[in-house]
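User: My collaborator sent over this chain with a note saying "see what the structure looks like." That's all I know about it. Can you take a look?
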Amino acid sequence: MNVAFDAQRLDAVGNTFDRWTGSQPELAAVAVSGPGAIEAIRALQNAGCQPRRSVELIQFTSAEPAGFGIGCLGSRLLSGAMPAWKAARLTGADGKTFDEWRAEAGFEGPLESVAVPAGHYAAFVELSAGPDQRPGIATGFAASAGLRVTVEGEGAEDAIGEIAGAVHGLADCVPGRARLEFHVEDTDQAKRDEKVSRIATVCRDTAQRRRIAVKAEVLHMDPAAECGAEVVDALERGAASQSLGYQRMVARGCHDAQFLSRIAPAGMLVIPSPADGANGTLVLAEALAELAG
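Assistant: Without extra context I'll predict from the sequence alone. Here is the result:
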């Protein structure tokens, strides 16, 4: 059986929304995203489930930070975590602006139209793949930050190497010929801020000592976030019903649920391997059935 959706829309940055209308469509919908989400909806439809709340499958655009150095652009804009004016100022490594990228991709409409208000969704659930050995249910998200360091002038490559070495262990680093991109995170927001400050100090000291231009640009500073208790509980009950062992965890990295938590109770199930994929999909289906009523 194919999944039956009643409506589909595309917003101004390419986020796509497929809605399975509930018996009480006036209620706020439950949203879901991630690999396996469509299979979870299919499992519910195959079982003859008719939820009260509509269930909306969201496929977010620009999940990876490759283009503009910032991950989860689609969910940042949808949740208002990134305002439209700031997105409009983004420039990629190729010099293209965010609006130029949108135009080439065929996405139309004002950026301001992407954000939805708090309460638009009753809950949001994400299924994610992760490196841990056991499945995990997120209780929150670590504070994170992204920085781009650009060096110009004679000896730029040597300066890049010096900066990367000096901040080793503080952040994940992606080096380029005259550019570094850092991802910093910590479960303690104050410690995250200390790491960012340390990187800025290293850049300033290197510039002064080598008499070279070093620009350290903060791309984003995301606060720590908590998952919605009702979503965590629904995922835990789903895991119990499928006899899926799991660990509670504070998620690291960039996740759509972290930003959707600003406008709705949000949660995330992390599956470490394809072997757990089927159970993960069933856990997600159980949670969706509970949250959508």
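A starting point for your reply to your collaborator: The chain has nine helices and 13 strands.
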